[in-house]
């Protein structure tokens, strides 16, 4: 039972960040574990954030990042429709749209290949996140889908106890292609 509280406390400390949260978990393990567990459960999923963003801006999702600024967590979702790029920020707790920034799409990427990447034969972002989080026991910070040498990959960046980890997952099979740990 004590190990369970420690695991919950560590996961919550990663989510809420900083030494202050970790110190609070050490001094009042039972009290802080419950509130941190609640904070983790209250976040909307990546799929929910994606759905909200796509209801605001039409196109294909290029990347999703879970950001934390001044204690406020939000998803930053980049959407490309071939003519315009959108940067949509969604509150990670209540799903409200914080902001939408629109720019003319002036990059030289191949928009047709972007359409191919987001086909029906790939696993969801949520599934890729679950696979990566389980592999390194971490929490997703950023996810992108990209084509690398003809293979469609989810590139997932995660926060772990000792730094960060990057996990590449085959978007069609769900198999882990590469794990890189950064201290």
Automatic annotation (TrEMBL):
Domain PepSY: 44-100, 123-180
Signal peptide (UniProt feature, chain positions): 1-24
Protein name: PepSY domain-containing protein
Keywords, comma-separated and alphabetical: Signal
Keyword Signal: yes
UniProt xrefs under Pfam families: PepSY
